[in-house]
Amino acid sequence: MTDITMIEAAAKRLKGHARRTPLLSSPFLDEIAGRRVFVKPECLQHTGSFKFRGAWSALSALDPAVRTKGVIAFSSGNHAQGVALAARMHGVPSVIVMPYDAPHLKIDNTRALGAEVVLYDRFGEDRDAIGETLSKERGLTLIKPYDEPLVIAGQGTTGLEIAEQAAHEGIDKADVIVCCGGGGLTSGIALALEARAPGLRARPAEPENFDDATRSLLSGNIETNASGNQSICDAIVTPSPGQITFPIMQRLCGPGIVATDEECLKTMALAFLRLKIILEPGGAIALASALFHQDEIKGDAVICVASGGNVDADVYQDALRKYGTPNPTDS
Amino acid sequence: MTDITMIEAAAKRLKGHARRTPLLSSPFLDEIAGRRVFVKPECLQHTGSFKFRGAWSALSALDPAVRTKGVIAFSSGNHAQGVALAARMHGVPSVIVMPYDAPHLKIDNTRALGAEVVLYDRFGEDRDAIGETLSKERGLTLIKPYDEPLVIAGQGTTGLEIAEQAAHEGIDKADVIVCCGGGGLTSGIALALEARAPGLRARPAEPENFDDATRSLLSGNIETNASGNQSICDAIVTPSPGQITFPIMQRLCGPGIVATDEECLKTMALAFLRLKIILEPGGAIALASALFHQDEIKGDAVICVASGGNVDADVYQDALRKYGTPNPTDS
C-alpha cells in the first residue's frame, strides 16, 4: 500500500523527468478569495497535467522485461497522455482505450505522443472487456488511472513539493484543495502532507452531480454518482472514489467542496487574467472552490492544486467570452 | 554601468520577492522548430511580465527617504504594472503615465495595483513634459523602462536563471532569443550570459516594421522605426534601442530576428496547446522566431524568453479562433 516511503521513492524516479511546478499567486485572487491563495499549476507538468507523475512512477517501477512488451491504459484523456509520453520516454509501446467523446485535443495529443488509440462508446461498450482482450493478446501491462499504489505514489510527489513550498511561504496550517476524480491525486497528496506537513490538510473538490467523494466522506461508504448527468469537467467525472484511494481519503482528508461548471468557467478566465496559465474545467475546480466557496474554508491561506490544462479551444473561448474581461467585482 | 556584479546584487534584492520562473518545453514544439526548444515563461512572473524584476531592482535600491515620496513611470503597460506592484510592496505611491490606447487590461490592472494612472494621447501630447511637471510637483523619482542601469540589472536576473537552467539541461551552446523593445531585457540577459554561460548568446526578436534593434545591430548605429506603423505587439513597439542598452547589445548579441504579427498569433495558440501558458503578442515573438525562422538559427537547442502574458481576451480569442485547433502540420 502507498506510504511516504513509496512516495519518496517515486520522487527519486521522477527526478529529472517530471517537472517541479512552481507555486503561483496573485493579489487579485487573494482579494476575491478573502485570504491568500496559492496555486500549484500542474497544467505546466509534461503533457499538461499531473497524470505524467503517476504514469512515470508506475512505468519506471516495472520489470524491464515486462515493460518492454508495452502498457495499456483506459482514460478520457489526461492519464492517456501521461502514459503515452512516459511509455515513449521509456521506449516501449502503449495502447490507450479512450471514449469517443473525449476532447479532440486529448485524443490527438495521445496519438501524437506515439500511443495506439482505441476508441469505444462510453454508453454502449465494455471498455474493460476491450482492454482485457488486448492485454492478453499482446502481453501489455495495465496502468490503472488511480486505484494503483504506484500511481498514487507518483501523484503524491505533488504533495512533497507543496509541503516544501508552503514552508517556504511560511504556511504551516492550511487546506490544500485538490481536483478529485477517482482520488489518486487527492489521496497521494494527503499521504505526503501527513508525513511532511501535518498542518496542511487535503480536501477534494468536485463538480455538481459528480460529488461522489464528498458524499462518500460524509457517509463513510463509497458512494456512486447517478448516471445520465453531464459536466464540462471531463477530467474528473469518475463514478466513485477508488477501493484503494477512499480509505486513505477517509482517514486524512477534510470535507469535500462542490463547485458548478459556471464557477469553473469563471475560474478559467481568472487564471487567464491573473496567473497566465491555461486551466481546463476540471483543473480549475479546486481554485473555483477557494474563490467562490470561501465560507467552507478556514484560515488565512489556502493552497489549490490546478490539475490540468488540456481544454479544447472552443470551450476556452466560451470562458473568455463570458468572463474574460475583468469587472469591478473581480479586482 | 550595469555589470555582472550589479546583476547579482539585484538578484539578492529580488530573492523572495520576484518569482523564479521554470524552463518549459514540449515535444510538439521541438518537432515544429526542428530542434529542442526551451521557453522561459516570464508571463508567470508577478504582474504577468519580466518588468517586475527591473522595477523591484530600481525601487529596492533607492534611498528610503527618496523612495517614500513615490515613483513615476511612463509605460504602455507591463512596466507600469511592474512599477505599481513594486511600489505597493514597498509601501510608497506610484504615478504611471500611459497612452490612451494601451490594452484595457493593462490600464485596469495598473490602477488596481494601487497606482495613479495619468492617460495621454501618444499622437498629440508630450509625455515627457507631463511626467516632468508631475515629478517636480511631488518629488517623484522617475523609473525608466529600459535605459537605466538598475533596471537592466533587474532584467538581467532572468539571464542568471537561464544560465543555471541551461546547465541543468546540459546545454552549453545555444542562442537565447529575447523579445526586444528598448533592449533592457535583451541587454541584461546578454550581460548575465557573458559572465555565467559564455556559450549562450542573446539575440533580439522584433515585430515587422519595429525592427530597430535588428537594423541597428546591422548598421552599427542606433536606427529608428518609421512612424505610422501598427503592430499587435504593443509591449515592444519602442522607436529605437536605448543609449545604454544598444552598446551592450552591439558588443554581445547575435543578429536580430524579425517575425510577423500572424506568426505571433500562431505562437500564442501553440503556447495554449503545448505549454499551457498565456502569451501576449509581444511576449510570443521570441518563440515565434524559433518556430518559424528556424533557418536563421543554428545548433540543436534554442532558448526563448517569453516576456509577458498581459493580453486582452478578444485578441487572445482571435489567436485561438484562427490557430487553436491543431492540424497535422503542427504535430
Describe the structure.
- The structure is a homodimer of 331-residue chains.
- With 331 residues, chain A is of the alpha/beta class.
- Chain A has 2 domains: 4-49 and 148-330, Rossmann fold; 51-142, Rossmann fold (3-Layer(aba) Sandwich), CATH 3.40.50.1100.
- Helix content of chain A is 46%, strand content 14%.
- Chain A has a 5-stranded parallel sheet with strand order 1-9-6-7-8, sandwiched between helices.
- In chain A, strand 3 (94-99), helix 6 (104-112) and strand 4 form a beta-alpha-beta unit.
- Chain A is globular, with a radius of gyration of 18 Å.
- The model of chain A has no long low-confidence stretch (mean pLDDT 94).
- The A-B interface holds A 19-22, 24, 27-28, 41, 43-44, 48, 85, 104-105, 108-109, 112-113, 269, 272-273, 275-278, 309, 312-314, 316-317, 320-321, 324-326, 331 and B 19-22, 24, 27-28, 41, 43-44, 48, 85, 104-105, 108-109, 112-113, 269, 272-273, 275-278, 309, 312-314, 316-317, 320-321, 324-326, 331.
